[in-house]
Amino acid sequence: MSVIYLDNNATTQVDPAVLEAMLPYLTEYYGNPSSMHTFGGQVGRAVSEARSQIAELLGADPSEIIFTSCGTEGNNAAIRAALTAQADRRHIITTQVEHAAVLNVCKQLEKQGYTVTYLSVNPQGQLDLTELEAALTGNTALVSIMYANNETGVIFPIEQIGQMVKEYGAIFHVDAVQAVGKVPLNMKTSTIDLLTLSGHKLHAPKGIGALYVRRGVRFRPFLLGGHQERGRRAGTENVPGIVALGKAAELAQTYLNGVDGERQLRDRLEQGLLANIPNCEVNGELTQRLPNTTNIGFKYIEGEAILLLLNKYGICASSGSACTSGSLEPSHVLRALGLPYTILHGSIRFSLSRYTTSAEIDQVLAVMPEIVERLRALSPFNSDAAEWLQDRELALNN
Ligand code: PLP
Asked: What is the Cα–Cα distance from 86 to 140, expressed in whole angstroms?
C-alpha cells in the first residue's frame, strides 16, 4: 500500500535533487570546512554557497545567516541572544500558541526572574494587536511571535507587529519554521531582527536549520566552543545538511511560484470534506493561512480514532493531541482558540506539500465520510449534551 502523506507540517520528504546535492559531502568531500588545505577549502566553498542560497530565499545578506541543528536550536539561540543583548530589560512577549521550542524556554525564563506575557488568540486563531500594544513597555526585551502556526496554519500580521515592537526598542524574533518556503519573505523590507527556519520542513533532511540575524543586532552565541560561523555558533559544521538546506532553499524559491496549485488542492480537500460530512468545521482563520494547511474539527469523535482508521488506508495526517500518561489531551493551540469541547477532541490537521497529487486528495475524500460515520455510530458523545466531557474540559482549563 502506498502512503498518502498529508503530514508535511510535521516533516517533509527530502527532495531528490537535495539528496543528490548533499551525497558527495557524505562520501567524497568529507573535509573540514575550517581546514587550511585545499581539500577542506572546497568544502568551505560549498558551505558559503549554501549560505548564499538561503540568504537569497530570505532576501538577506549571507553574513546574516547562521547554521543551526534545527528549529528548536534556532529558537533557543535567538531568545537567549536577544535577552543577553538587552540585559537591562526583563520582560518578554510571546503568544499562547507558539511551538514548545519557544514556550518551554519562556517558562524556564520565568523561573529565572523574567516576566512573560503570553498573548491570547481569538476563536479564529488570530492575535488582537491591542493586547500586544497594551503589553509592550520600555522593559520589554524581546517579542517572539511565530510567522504561521503549525497546527492551524494561521498567519500573524508580522510586519504590523514588528512596527509596534520597534517603537519600544525591543528585539523582534520570528519563528518562521512553518512559513519559510510556503510564503515569500524579504528581510530587506522587514522589521524582523531574528528569524528561525528548519530544514526538514522544506524538503531538506532533519538535523539542519538556520537562524537569520539582522546586521547590527547584537548576537551572543548560544553554543560556545570553536570559531565556526564567525564565532556565533560553535561546532564543526554539518556540511551535508548545510549543502542540502542550500539546495532546498533554492528549490523553494522556484516552488513559491507554484504554491497556488497546492492551495487549490488544499481548498478542494477542505470543501469536499465540509460538503460531504455533517457537523464539521475548519479551525482557524480561512484567509490569513498557509496554503498547505487545513485543520478540521469533526464533532463528537476523537481525532486519534480518525487517524487510526486513516492509517489503515495509508493516509498520514495528525491531530493536535498529545498522548500523555494514557489520557488524550487536546493541543494547547486548539485550546487557546477556545473551541467547544466537541470540536477540540475531534480535530485533524491535513498538511500538503508540492508532492501531493489530485488523486491522493480524491482518495481522502472517498474514505473520510465513511470513517467519520463509523466512529460516530460508536461514539457515546454524539451530541453537544455530552456534559461530562464538558465538565472534564472545564476542570482541565482550571
Ligand atoms: N517551530 C515550529 C512552528 C514548528 O512547527 C517546529 C516543528 O514542528 C519547530 C519550531 C521545531 O523545529 P525542529 O523540529 O527543527 O526542531
From this structure: 9
99 lines ligand 1 (CB under 6 A): yes
CA distances from 387 to 340, 341, 359, 392 (A): 12, 10, 40, 9
209 CB within 6 A, ligand 1: yes
Q: Residue 240: what are its φ and ψ, rounded to 5°?
A: -60, -40
Beta-carbon contacts of 107 under 8 Å, excluding residues fewer than 6 positions away, are: 116
Could you tell me the distance, in angstroms and rounded to a whole number, from the CA of residue 128 to the centre of ligand 1?
24
Residue positions annotated with a catalytic role: 323
- CB contact at 8 A, 141 and 90: yes
For residue 323, pLDDT over 70 is answered with: no
Whether ligand 1 lies within 6 angstroms of the CB of 249 is answered as no
Tens of pLDDT, residue by residue over 175-218, are: 999 999 999 999 999 999 999 999 999 999 999 999 999 999 99
pLDDT band, residue 324 (cuts 50/70/90): very low
23-75 tens-digit pLDDT: 999 999 999 999 999 999 999 999 999 999 999 999 999 999 999 999 999 99
Query: Rounded to whole angstroms, how far apart are CA atoms 119 and 140?
Result: 14
Ligand 1 mutation target, pool 12, 177, 197, most atoms within 8 A of CB: 177
Cα distance from N-terminal residue to C-terminal residue, the chain: 45
Using CA atoms, how far apart are residues 251 and 230, in angstroms rounded to an integer? Answer: 27
Give the confidence band of 341 by pLDDT, cuts at 50, 70, 90.
confident
Residue 116, amino acid? V
CA 120 to centroid of ligand 1, rounded, Å? 20
CB 158 within 8 A of CB 147: yes
φ and ψ of 203, to 5 deg = 70, 25
